[in-house]
Amino acid sequence: RSMNAFLIVYLCILISKALINTVLKYVWQSEPFRDEPWYNQKTEPERKRNLFLQALTDFLAFMVLFNYIIPVSMYVTVEMQKFLGSYFLTWDEEMFDEDTGEGPLVNTSDLNEELGQIEYVFTDKTGTLTENNMEFVECCIEGHVYVPHVICNGQILHDCTGIDMIDSSPGGSGKEREDLFFRALCLCHTVQVKDDDSVDGLRKNQLSKPCIYISSSPDEVALVEGIQRLGYTYLRLKDNFMEILNRENNIEKFELLEVLSFDSVRRRMSVIVKSSGGDIFLFCKGADSSIFPRVKEGKIDQIRSRVERNAVEGLRTLCVAYKKLTAEEYSCAQKLLQNAKLALQDREKKLAEVYEKIERDFILLGATAVEDRLQEKAADTIESLQKAGIKVWVLTGDKMETAAATCYACKLFRRNTQLLELTTKKIEEQSLHDVLFDLSKTVLRHSGSLTRDTFSGLSTDMQDYGLIIDGAALSLIMKPRQDGSSANYRELFLEICRNCSAVLCCRMAPLQKAQIVKLIKLSKEHPITLAIGDGANDVSMILEAHVGIGIIGKEGRQAARNSDYAIPKFKHLKKMLLVHGHFYYVRISELVQYFFYKNVCFIFPQFLYQFFCGFSQQTLYDTAYLTLYNISFTSLPILLYGLMEQHVSADTLKREPSLYRDVAKNALLRWRAFIYWTFLGVFDAVVFFFGAYFLFDNTVVTSNGQMFGNWTFGTVVFTVLVFTVTLKLALDTHYWTWINHFMIWGSLVFYIVFSLLWGGIIWPFLNYQRMYYVFMQMLSSGPAWLGIILLITVSLLPDVLKKVLCRQLWPTATERIQNASRHCREHISEFTPLACLKSPRYRSSDCSHSPARRSNSHSKKMMFTHWRGIDYSVLPSVFGYSNKQGRSRAGYRYSGSGLETSV
Amino acid sequence: MKNKTNRLPQEAGARPSRCPDNSAFKQQRLPAWKPQLTIASVLSSFFLIGAFCLLVGICLILSANSVREFQINYSDKCSECSKLRENTSNWNKECHCSVNFTLKEDMLGDVFMYYGLQNFYQNHRRYVISRSDAQLLGRSVNIEKSYCAPFTTYQNGTPMAPCGAIANSMFNDTIDLFYNLNSSVVQVPLLKTGNSWWTDKNVKFRNPKSYNLSSAFAGTARPPYWQKPVYLLDEEDERNNGYVNDDFIIWMRVSAFATFRNLYRRIGRVRQFVDGLPAGNYTFRISYNFPVSKFKGRKHVILSTVVWSGGSNPFLGIAYVVTGTAATLMGFVITAIHLKLRKKKTYFQK
């Protein structure tokens, strides 16, 4: 993107160069002895030409002469780099999914470098973060925890029907409660049984074959399946009798009397059943918040703690309670229900009242925990992304609680995350205006204190905020108002979002997802957004975001087909962004900058030469050199660099997500870098030209007294140019494979061979032989050799010096990692003190490649914060020894504060 | 700096067909050399470069100091001739001029005589392309196709040989050198061949094939500013005549800048000039033909010796010394910074 801006700058430079030269030419020519000296006369038509026309021709001629400054070949190289580079993504073995046999797909190679620039990730929940596959995890009865046996990818193994009881000695009443609990779970649902083949088949295989359950809620299916594994199988609902196969393989029949169906306000459901013994039970299951207040008996505290623990782990918890009804109570309840159901007005309200009356005075049985299994390593991925400074937004159609639980599970929200809710419920209580202002006040006060804290260098543990917003509230914010205050709300909302580390948007319609993406995309920083999803409902958001990624998942290929990239699993996003994206960005930015640099080096001597040749558009280099410079002398090494460069190893990038921040916000293609490269190019060009100029300055450069002409001069400059530019790339290369060696040294050798050949023969098809033996004569002159070596050294030294100094004084995280990894590898004494400070930690965490340590994410996290803490305390005093560096420290702080907000 | 080879173990077969190859290249795991800017390598390279540059620089300066060069601006000294040449109509009037000078020290070794021109834009584009290399190769070509205009043909259609502005403006002063030894005047022997590149003389410039030179150039005419046709450039030496005349070849190699010098003669090392030019009084006798005052140019005649590092150009030596010093200084600065940072670090570790 910045390439185009750079191009415009170069276009301006080109035009201004041509203009300057044209003007100077006419100033210079104003004296007739210069315009047309006796030795250099014009032809008749030239003399007669109109002055204006002549000036225009001259201007255009200068444009042609300097056009190489606009690197046309860059576009070709960039396209090739992108196209070929995207193969590395498809080839990546780690991103290949063994289960589905799918690898990543690249539908466009245009966005490779954007992968290294992502600031916002919008992800779908179901199917993307989770596997869309519910799993019964445990149940807790009276404080005893029951865990079903082995679970493999959602498939129940047939031989695992036993119970794994943590405390397997329940007392007498415990036993009774346990039976009740299981029956409750078996009965209190709205699951339907689908007979797989036929009723006959079902009967035959009752014992071993799991029935296929269908329900509107995957949780219920998971529960029933889980109970099945604990020994109670729900067989079917037949003639209003529910049949259960209990642990002793006896079929129990319960008559289903009433279903008090689920609704999201009550957040519970109940059934009233009559056992074969004639007892009437009311079983209720529901969210903890709706059950506990209605319980009068049971081990509430134990269960509550268990439930809370499960919720924190991101499990979807339900509590189960029961009540034994006497016949009178039942008939009373039935009457009430009947009345309510038959009511013509306010039926729902009345029903709710009746439910309220009936569902009380429960005896708490226990709780269940169901997991919508997260995709493997989803939490790790999200954590890495957040560490990499990427804000992760979850956009889902699910309800808030579920979504929030998932967010906790995948560590989008952490325990210390303070949740800000912007939901319909809250807006009903207050006006939208007030809510927004309250929230922004909270957040902004926090961020204000944050910057101060980071400046003092002490804040390491800080409160971060998570925002939860639902679709209705969002549409309120987005809705245009007559009085034009909507923009204000939008700004406010964006401000809040910007200060939240994680945002959860629930109850989103597909179009709203796109709307959110668009809102962020068009906000004033113009961040690069990435949307990832698997289903058709994510397509709009995938299309809207800068980079759209589809998961090749269960819900068809619609998302994958509409995306820019498709990956098999969410976890692959980590490698895609942190490794491939980072590489692509580093590579392409070097490629772009280098292209500009080498063309400045190439053409600026040409410009300088005009001042010495009477502004006559005389070329400095031979035509062959002009043509081949960008095509064959200098193009392949940079293309190879663009494909192969790894400034740090892929493993390190994966291990240290924070390195992603080093390239965030287009860090390597900022104007500062661009100006640096341009000035480096100009400096080198000046060195080439004036170095050769003084070398040739009206003196003999050979040891046999013979003189060199203008083509030798051009060849000297060009030789220095080709070598400098290639060696500069060699200095920038951190990853020398044999291909790099081959290309870099190969193109230098090619240049020499070509020059020897080009000057070695009288070429019959050319009408000029100006290069004949020029190169050889140059090589035969000792001073020319010395001059070339000197000029190459001089033009490379400043860049090396700059690199060394920057590395020592203001090392970036990447460079510190480079040092550290070197340090670890070699166990030699340090180069950068920071690296040394950290190196013991590195050695323990990273260099010992023990899988046990790596899997221990907690200790790693601790390590990370520890490391960060050290950094912040060390930096100020290390850099605080001169005023000049104080400024750069402030710059570092600034970026530091930027990154702290999003952790 | 260490080679790091981390090639994945090649797992044999047993992979799904769509699984990508596990080749080192495709997994971007080719074994690679990963150089790092370590303090040791940086400092050693800086100091090495510094030492090398200083050494070379001092050698260059010493050798450049042994070069003797003597230069006279004779367009100023022969002001009458300069004035005469300013008027084009006097082009065929001869003008001779003598310039006396004294060499205070001997010029030992090979002594080269150059003529130097100032403000003569040989590198002007219109000038540079105004030649026909094919013609100079002795081929019979249609020079109308070349860029020789306006020095291609006369109005009657006779082609110029050689054509083009470069050839037309060939330097045509004759300079002789005399050694005044005790009131007797000795002409210093000057060698007029062997001054051009061997390849130019033997490959790039060829006379048209014919039984003699004047017939070879039959049907062509001399360039307008020449006083004699090309086949009379050197009547004494057949191999230095026509296109292969050394003076002509040297002139045809256009210079890079408007101030330049071309090799004119070498001093023949015979008799009292075996060791070069002894100190004493000398006279240049110049047949002044080449007008320079019209374009505010100057003409020099230069006597110079040459060493392995070329002529008397101090630039290369000085530049080497400066670079060497700078590199060494940078090395010290880096060391200082490094030590300072290390001190801080030890402070922090306490």
Automatic annotation (TrEMBL), chain A:
Compartments where found: Membrane
One annotated GO biological process: phospholipid translocation
Source species, domain of life: Eukaryota
A GO cellular component entry from the record: endoplasmic reticulum
Binding site for Mg(2+): 124, 126, 534, 538
Alphabetized UniProt keyword annotations: ATP-binding, Magnesium, Membrane, Metal-binding, Nucleotide-binding, Translocase, Transmembrane, Transmembrane helix
InterPro entries, sorted: ATPase_P-typ_cyto_dom_N, ATPase_P-typ_P_site, ATPase_P-typ_TM_dom_sf, HAD-like_sf, HAD_sf, P-type_ATPase_IV, P_typ_ATPase, P_typ_ATPase_c
Enzyme Commission number(s) of this protein: 7.6.2.1
Positions of the P-type ATPase C-terminal domain: 560-812
Spans traversing the lipid bilayer: 7-28, 59-78, 624-644, 674-696, 708-730, 742-766, 772-797
Protein name: Phospholipid-transporting ATPase
Automatic annotation (TrEMBL), chain B:
Stretches that traverse the bilayer: 37-63, 315-339
Keywords for the protein's UniProt record, in alphabetical order: Glycoprotein, Membrane, Transmembrane, Transmembrane helix
GO CC terms in record: endoplasmic reticulum; Golgi apparatus; plasma membrane
Top-level taxon of origin: Eukaryota
Subcellular locations according to the entry: Membrane
GO biological process, any: phospholipid translocation
Main location: membrane
One Pfam family this sequence matches: CDC50
Region Disordered, annotated ranges: 1-20
InterPro entries: CDC50/LEM3_fam (IPR005045)
Family per record: Belongs to the CDC50/LEM3 family.
Name listed for the protein in its UniProt record: Cell cycle control protein 50C
Organism: Pampusana beccarii
Gene: Tmem30c
